[in-house]
Amino acid sequence: MPELFKQMTVCGVGLIGGSLALIARRAGLAKTIVGLGRTRKNLDIAVKRKLIDRATRDPIEAARGADLIVLAVPILTMRRVLEPMLPYCAPGAIITDVGSVKGFVVRELEPLIAGKMSLVAAHPIAGKETAGAGAADPDLFRNRRVIITPSKTSTPAAIKKIETLWKATGARVEKMDPDSHDKILARASHLPQVVASALAAALGGEKVAGKTPTEYGAGGLRDTTRIAASPWEVWRDIFIANQAALATAMKRFEIAYAEFQRLIEMGDLDRLEPLFNRGRAMRERLK
Q1: Cα(201)–Cα(195) distance, rounded to whole angstroms?
Q2: pTM of the prediction?
Q3: What CA–CA distance (Å, rounded) separates 24 from 21?
Q4: φ/ψ of residue 98, rounded to 5
Q5: Which of 42, 97, 204, 283 is deepest in the core (most CB within 10 A)?
Q6: Alpha-carbon span 82 to 64, nearest angstrom
Q7: What is the per-residue DSSP string for 168-205?
Q8: Which domains does the chain have, with CATH numbers?
Q9: pLDDT recorded at residue 287
Q10: What is the dihedral of CA 19, 21, 25, 31, to 10 degrees?
Q11: CB atoms inside a 10 Å sphere around CB 182
Protein backbone atom coordinates (compact mmCIF):
# COMPACT_ATOMS: atom_id res chain seq x y z
CA MET A 1 0.00 0.00 0.00
CA PRO A 2 1.17 3.61 -0.52
CA GLU A 3 2.83 5.45 2.34
CA LEU A 4 0.29 7.47 4.36
CA PHE A 5 2.52 9.08 6.96
CA LYS A 6 6.12 10.23 7.29
CA GLN A 7 6.16 9.53 11.03
CA MET A 8 3.58 7.64 13.04
CA THR A 9 4.00 8.08 16.80
CA VAL A 10 2.21 5.50 18.94
CA CYS A 11 1.66 6.55 22.54
CA GLY A 12 1.30 3.28 24.42
CA VAL A 13 2.80 0.31 22.58
CA GLY A 14 0.57 -2.34 24.13
CA LEU A 15 -1.84 -4.84 22.63
CA ILE A 16 -3.85 -2.34 20.56
CA GLY A 17 -1.19 0.28 19.83
CA GLY A 18 1.46 -2.36 19.22
CA SER A 19 -0.75 -4.37 16.87
CA LEU A 20 -1.62 -1.27 14.84
CA ALA A 21 2.05 -0.25 14.67
CA LEU A 22 3.07 -3.74 13.53
CA ILE A 23 0.50 -3.77 10.73
CA ALA A 24 1.36 -0.24 9.60
CA ARG A 25 5.06 -1.11 9.55
CA ARG A 26 4.59 -4.33 7.55
CA ALA A 27 2.28 -2.59 5.08
CA GLY A 28 4.64 0.35 4.62
CA LEU A 29 1.99 2.87 5.69
CA ALA A 30 4.49 4.97 7.66
CA LYS A 31 8.11 5.74 6.82
CA THR A 32 9.07 5.78 10.51
CA ILE A 33 7.16 4.49 13.55
CA VAL A 34 8.08 5.83 16.98
CA GLY A 35 6.85 4.30 20.23
CA LEU A 36 6.27 6.38 23.35
CA GLY A 37 5.91 4.50 26.63
CA ARG A 38 6.42 4.53 30.37
CA THR A 39 8.58 1.46 30.86
CA ARG A 40 11.85 0.69 29.12
CA LYS A 41 11.16 -3.05 29.36
CA ASN A 42 7.99 -2.89 27.26
CA LEU A 43 9.58 -0.50 24.75
CA ASP A 44 12.55 -2.86 24.38
CA ILE A 45 10.14 -5.69 23.56
CA ALA A 46 8.43 -3.47 20.97
CA VAL A 47 11.75 -2.71 19.28
CA LYS A 48 12.88 -6.33 19.43
CA ARG A 49 9.63 -7.50 17.83
CA LYS A 50 10.00 -4.76 15.19
CA LEU A 51 6.65 -3.20 16.05
CA ILE A 52 8.39 0.20 15.97
CA ASP A 53 11.58 1.67 14.55
CA ARG A 54 12.63 3.51 17.68
CA ALA A 55 11.42 4.02 21.22
CA THR A 56 11.45 6.86 23.71
CA ARG A 57 9.99 7.81 27.08
CA ASP A 58 10.19 11.52 26.21
CA PRO A 59 6.91 12.95 24.77
CA ILE A 60 8.66 15.82 22.98
CA GLU A 61 11.16 13.52 21.30
CA ALA A 62 8.30 11.21 20.30
CA ALA A 63 6.26 14.07 18.82
CA ARG A 64 9.00 15.85 16.91
CA GLY A 65 8.00 15.82 13.22
CA ALA A 66 5.11 13.34 13.67
CA ASP A 67 2.27 13.69 11.18
CA LEU A 68 0.21 11.00 12.96
CA ILE A 69 -0.21 10.66 16.73
CA VAL A 70 -2.02 7.51 17.93
CA LEU A 71 -3.18 7.72 21.54
CA ALA A 72 -3.30 4.15 22.86
CA VAL A 73 -3.14 5.18 26.51
CA PRO A 74 -5.88 5.11 29.18
CA ILE A 75 -8.70 7.51 28.30
CA LEU A 76 -8.33 9.79 31.33
CA THR A 77 -4.64 10.38 30.57
CA MET A 78 -5.02 11.23 26.85
CA ARG A 79 -5.17 15.00 27.26
CA ARG A 80 -2.20 15.06 29.64
CA VAL A 81 -0.14 12.95 27.24
CA LEU A 82 -1.09 14.85 24.08
CA GLU A 83 -0.97 18.50 25.18
CA PRO A 84 2.84 18.87 25.54
CA MET A 85 3.39 17.00 22.26
CA LEU A 86 1.33 19.22 19.96
CA PRO A 87 3.83 22.09 19.44
CA TYR A 88 6.38 19.60 18.09
CA CYS A 89 4.18 17.74 15.61
CA ALA A 90 4.12 18.40 11.88
CA PRO A 91 1.83 21.37 10.99
CA GLY A 92 -0.92 19.21 9.44
CA ALA A 93 -0.67 16.32 11.90
CA ILE A 94 -3.61 14.00 12.51
CA ILE A 95 -4.44 13.01 16.06
CA THR A 96 -6.33 9.77 16.59
CA ASP A 97 -6.93 7.32 19.42
CA VAL A 98 -8.13 3.78 20.13
CA GLY A 99 -10.28 4.40 23.21
CA SER A 100 -13.63 2.68 23.70
CA VAL A 101 -15.38 5.88 24.85
CA LYS A 102 -15.62 8.59 22.22
CA GLY A 103 -17.71 11.49 23.52
CA PHE A 104 -15.32 12.12 26.43
CA VAL A 105 -12.27 11.85 24.18
CA VAL A 106 -13.60 14.30 21.59
CA ARG A 107 -14.69 16.81 24.25
CA GLU A 108 -11.31 16.59 26.01
CA LEU A 109 -9.05 16.76 22.96
CA GLU A 110 -10.94 18.92 20.46
CA PRO A 111 -10.11 22.24 22.21
CA LEU A 112 -6.39 21.45 21.88
CA ILE A 113 -6.46 21.05 18.09
CA ALA A 114 -5.52 24.20 16.19
CA GLY A 115 -4.25 25.30 12.79
CA LYS A 116 -4.20 22.61 10.13
CA MET A 117 -4.26 19.71 12.62
CA SER A 118 -7.17 17.28 12.74
CA LEU A 119 -8.65 15.09 15.46
CA VAL A 120 -10.17 11.89 14.08
CA ALA A 121 -11.23 9.70 17.01
CA ALA A 122 -11.55 5.94 16.46
CA HIS A 123 -12.40 2.76 18.33
CA PRO A 124 -11.27 -0.69 17.20
CA ILE A 125 -13.66 -3.22 18.73
CA ALA A 126 -11.08 -5.91 19.32
CA GLY A 127 -8.94 -7.18 22.15
CA LYS A 128 -7.69 -9.97 24.35
CA GLU A 129 -7.12 -10.41 28.06
CA THR A 130 -3.36 -10.18 27.47
CA ALA A 131 -1.48 -6.88 27.41
CA GLY A 132 1.82 -5.29 26.46
CA ALA A 133 4.00 -5.24 23.35
CA GLY A 134 4.52 -8.99 23.64
CA ALA A 135 0.79 -9.52 22.95
CA ALA A 136 0.71 -7.49 19.70
CA ASP A 137 -0.97 -9.49 16.94
CA PRO A 138 -1.07 -8.64 13.20
CA ASP A 139 -4.48 -10.36 12.90
CA LEU A 140 -6.07 -8.71 15.93
CA PHE A 141 -8.36 -6.41 13.93
CA ARG A 142 -9.14 -8.69 11.00
CA ASN A 143 -12.92 -8.80 10.33
CA ARG A 144 -13.53 -6.68 13.44
CA ARG A 145 -15.38 -3.38 13.49
CA VAL A 146 -13.56 -0.08 13.78
CA ILE A 147 -15.79 2.90 14.46
CA ILE A 148 -14.56 6.35 13.46
CA THR A 149 -16.21 9.30 15.23
CA PRO A 150 -15.08 12.50 13.50
CA SER A 151 -14.79 15.76 15.41
CA LYS A 152 -15.39 19.36 14.30
CA THR A 153 -11.69 19.55 13.41
CA SER A 154 -11.72 16.44 11.18
CA THR A 155 -11.03 17.26 7.54
CA PRO A 156 -12.21 14.92 4.76
CA ALA A 157 -8.56 14.17 3.90
CA ALA A 158 -7.74 13.28 7.52
CA ILE A 159 -10.80 11.02 7.82
CA LYS A 160 -9.85 9.25 4.60
CA LYS A 161 -6.31 8.59 5.86
CA ILE A 162 -7.55 7.11 9.13
CA GLU A 163 -10.08 4.98 7.24
CA THR A 164 -7.28 3.73 4.95
CA LEU A 165 -5.06 2.96 7.93
CA TRP A 166 -7.73 0.83 9.59
CA LYS A 167 -8.83 -0.89 6.40
CA ALA A 168 -5.23 -2.05 6.00
CA THR A 169 -5.67 -4.05 9.23
CA GLY A 170 -8.50 -6.07 7.67
CA ALA A 171 -11.11 -4.31 9.80
CA ARG A 172 -14.62 -3.25 8.77
CA VAL A 173 -14.71 0.53 9.13
CA GLU A 174 -17.81 2.63 9.80
CA LYS A 175 -18.51 6.19 11.00
CA MET A 176 -20.78 7.29 13.83
CA ASP A 177 -21.30 10.34 16.04
CA PRO A 178 -19.50 10.06 19.43
CA ASP A 179 -22.57 10.02 21.70
CA SER A 180 -24.37 7.32 19.69
CA HIS A 181 -21.18 5.26 19.83
CA ASP A 182 -21.05 5.55 23.61
CA LYS A 183 -24.69 4.54 24.13
CA ILE A 184 -24.23 1.49 21.89
CA LEU A 185 -20.94 0.40 23.45
CA ALA A 186 -22.34 0.86 26.96
CA ARG A 187 -24.78 -1.93 26.13
CA ALA A 188 -22.63 -4.09 23.86
CA SER A 189 -19.30 -3.95 25.72
CA HIS A 190 -19.23 -2.03 28.97
CA LEU A 191 -22.31 -3.64 30.55
CA PRO A 192 -21.07 -7.19 29.79
CA GLN A 193 -17.82 -6.32 31.58
CA VAL A 194 -19.73 -5.15 34.66
CA VAL A 195 -21.92 -8.28 34.66
CA ALA A 196 -18.95 -10.65 34.26
CA SER A 197 -16.94 -8.88 36.95
CA ALA A 198 -19.91 -8.74 39.34
CA LEU A 199 -20.60 -12.47 38.84
CA ALA A 200 -16.96 -13.36 39.43
CA ALA A 201 -16.84 -11.14 42.51
CA ALA A 202 -20.04 -12.70 43.88
CA LEU A 203 -18.67 -16.22 43.51
CA GLY A 204 -15.12 -15.50 44.62
CA GLY A 205 -14.38 -16.95 48.06
CA GLU A 206 -17.75 -18.73 48.26
CA LYS A 207 -17.87 -22.01 50.20
CA VAL A 208 -20.67 -24.57 50.21
CA ALA A 209 -20.33 -27.58 52.51
CA GLY A 210 -16.61 -26.78 52.75
CA LYS A 211 -16.17 -26.86 48.99
CA THR A 212 -15.43 -24.10 46.44
CA PRO A 213 -18.32 -24.00 43.91
CA THR A 214 -16.22 -22.37 41.17
CA GLU A 215 -14.02 -25.48 41.04
CA TYR A 216 -17.06 -27.36 39.75
CA GLY A 217 -17.83 -24.94 36.95
CA ALA A 218 -17.53 -26.11 33.36
CA GLY A 219 -17.49 -24.15 30.11
CA GLY A 220 -20.48 -22.02 31.04
CA LEU A 221 -18.76 -20.45 34.05
CA ARG A 222 -15.51 -19.96 32.15
CA ASP A 223 -17.27 -18.37 29.16
CA THR A 224 -19.47 -16.11 31.27
CA THR A 225 -16.61 -14.80 33.42
CA ARG A 226 -13.86 -14.73 30.75
CA ILE A 227 -13.71 -10.94 30.49
CA ALA A 228 -13.56 -10.60 34.26
CA ALA A 229 -9.83 -11.20 33.73
CA SER A 230 -9.49 -7.85 31.94
CA PRO A 231 -7.09 -5.28 33.46
CA TRP A 232 -8.49 -2.72 35.90
CA GLU A 233 -6.31 0.05 34.37
CA VAL A 234 -8.40 -0.06 31.19
CA TRP A 235 -11.83 -0.32 32.77
CA ARG A 236 -11.26 2.26 35.51
CA ASP A 237 -11.25 5.00 32.87
CA ILE A 238 -14.18 3.58 30.90
CA PHE A 239 -16.41 3.45 33.99
CA ILE A 240 -15.78 7.18 34.56
CA ALA A 241 -15.68 8.40 30.95
CA ASN A 242 -18.92 6.62 29.95
CA GLN A 243 -20.64 6.83 33.31
CA ALA A 244 -24.05 8.14 32.21
CA ALA A 245 -24.57 5.76 29.29
CA LEU A 246 -23.34 2.80 31.33
CA ALA A 247 -25.66 3.66 34.24
CA THR A 248 -28.63 3.63 31.83
CA ALA A 249 -27.57 0.25 30.41
CA MET A 250 -27.18 -1.18 33.92
CA LYS A 251 -30.73 -0.11 34.80
CA ARG A 252 -32.06 -2.07 31.80
CA PHE A 253 -30.14 -5.13 32.98
CA GLU A 254 -31.40 -4.62 36.53
CA ILE A 255 -35.00 -4.72 35.29
CA ALA A 256 -34.45 -7.96 33.35
CA TYR A 257 -32.54 -9.60 36.22
CA ALA A 258 -35.21 -8.58 38.73
CA GLU A 259 -37.88 -10.15 36.51
CA PHE A 260 -35.90 -13.42 36.34
CA GLN A 261 -35.57 -13.36 40.13
CA ARG A 262 -39.27 -12.63 40.72
CA LEU A 263 -40.51 -15.37 38.37
CA ILE A 264 -38.08 -17.96 39.72
CA GLU A 265 -39.09 -17.16 43.30
CA MET A 266 -42.77 -17.54 42.26
CA GLY A 267 -42.06 -20.74 40.33
CA ASP A 268 -43.92 -19.18 37.39
CA LEU A 269 -42.49 -21.17 34.48
CA ASP A 270 -45.18 -20.02 32.05
CA ARG A 271 -43.97 -16.43 32.20
CA LEU A 272 -40.31 -17.31 32.73
CA GLU A 273 -40.06 -19.32 29.51
CA PRO A 274 -40.61 -16.42 27.06
CA LEU A 275 -38.15 -14.25 29.00
CA PHE A 276 -35.55 -17.04 28.91
CA ASN A 277 -36.17 -17.62 25.19
CA ARG A 278 -35.84 -13.91 24.45
CA GLY A 279 -32.30 -14.07 25.81
CA ARG A 280 -31.62 -17.31 23.94
CA ALA A 281 -32.77 -15.76 20.66
CA MET A 282 -30.47 -12.77 21.12
CA ARG A 283 -27.49 -15.07 21.73
CA GLU A 284 -28.28 -17.10 18.61
CA ARG A 285 -28.20 -13.92 16.51
CA LEU A 286 -24.64 -13.16 17.57
CA LYS A 287 -22.00 -14.15 15.01
Answers
A1: 10
A2: 0.90
A3: 5
A4: -130, 20
A5: 97
A6: 12
A7: TTT-EEEE--HHHHHHHHIIIIIHHHHHHHHHHHHHTT
A8: 5-176 (3.40.50.720), 180-285 (1.10.3660.10)
A9: 66
A10: 170
A11: 25
